[in-house]
Amino acid sequence: MRRRRPGLRIARRVGASALVSAWLASLAVAATTPGASTSGRTGARATTHAPVQAPKPGAGARRPAATTAPARTTPRAKAAPKGPIRSALEQAYNARQLEDAGAYGRASDQLKVLRRMVKLDADLELELALDEARSGQADSALARLSTKMMEAAASDSLPIKRRAEYPYQRENFWLDGKYGGWNWYILRARAELEAKHGHWKAAAAWARRATDAWVLSGKDWQILAVCAAQAGQEDEARQATAQAVLLDPTLPESRYLAGLWAWRDGKRNQAIQDFRHALYLDSTYQAPALALIKVRLLGVQPDPLPQDLLTGIHQAALLTSAVGPKPEEFVQMDTPASIESAPDTAVTDSIPPGVRPYRLFLSVLVDEHGLPVLNHVPWYEPTQLDFRKIVRILASIPGMRFNPATRLSQPSRVWISLDYDLMP
Question: DSSP letter string over 337-385?
Fold first, then answer.
């Protein structure tokens, strides 16, 4: 296998939009068969913010991954205010820095000060609610997202250009008294908070709207599956579980839930396979480890359906959880993470001369041991790229190994970016 020397490039992310359910359902069946074999130049590159020498990557990745906060393609940030509003921008900047440091309680205090300095702003209210939830103030966060203004923002009819994730310098959105963000944030946050309060029917309703907004997000389908199951909506929960397994093959929680459904149906062999797969994805996940023992014992009833939306380090993907780092947060590292090896099964596409490839930016959370534990796929136009290619890419991620990033001479978690050139 030929390896290339690592190069360095800033990564960007793309924004997000919705896809009709019928289109997804038709492709879901097709996704069970492998895509056409590909050959030619490697389609993946890892990117970084600062130059660093790294081992040569394996197949499927051309450059070392080392960014702590991948940039995103979003609507142009609002211009910095001038004159007397300058102090408000500085206040917002300080609050964002506290968020990047994981000091969500102190950040919420700073945002409350900012709230008195600017017009009432739905982006600011959302950010404040997230910081409150992450610092243990779930009641206040839910109340803040339940106002008429936030209900209206959640139902906002958005143009494509606004179906985008907040950029790293997200404080620019908090100052003009208008909602400039993507309503998916409000829908997902409401689902998480309603679930935290045990309001399962309401949580399922909000989670359902979140999947409508980001229909190719496996994590959103997983959240809907848990909420619908707890609300007693079993048929929808089973379908959502299948979509989560299909769209994000790296989620151990969805594999575990699929195993529970199989166990309930008396399909013990299938349940055993699902529990083993969940453990392969996360060897520290206790629920499938225990289920793997009990499912072999005759007369033992299946385990109860889970109430946790995600578990362990995977909670970094939840908007309202304090587990981090979050994909949009920047944490300065002494040395960045870099690819040590990648599986030969990594996805590659041959790009014919004269054809402009579709560039996919994929973020991966690398833990202190150099293991990829979570991914973040940005939203993309469903008509631009067959989602099965992304599924194949994600399936190769657990086989990658990284040299962990270090901060203060200690291995640290960090988000890195991989970019793939794919045939549209």
Answer: -EEEE--TT-------TTPPPEEEEEEEEE-TTS-EEEEEPPP--TTTS
Residue with tokens 């005759």: 298
Cβ-in-10-Å burial (0-12, 13-18, 19+) of 68 comes to buried
Could you tell me how far CA 280 lies from the centroid of its own chain?
20
For the chain, list the domains and their CATH numbers. Answer: 21-72+342-422 (no CATH), 83-182 (1.25.40), 199-317 (1.25.40.10)
Torsion of CA 212, 213, 214, 220, to 10 degrees: -70
Amino acid (1-letter code) at residue 146: S
Token digits of residue 100: 């990047």
Q: Which pTM value belongs to this model?
A: 0.81
Q: For residue 369, give the amino acid letter.
A: H
Specify the amino acid at residue 48: T
Q: Give the DSSP H/E element, type plus range, for residue 80.
A: none
**And the tokens for 102?**
């994981």
**DSSP characters over 150-217:** HHHHHT----GGGS----SSGGGGGSSSS--S-THHHHHHHHHHHHHTT-HHHHHHHHHHHHHHSTT-
Q: How many CA atoms lie within 13 A of 206 on its CB side?
A: 24
State the DSSP code for 136.
Answer: T
169-213 residue pLDDT tens: 899 999 999 899 999 999 999 999 999 999 999 999 999 999 999
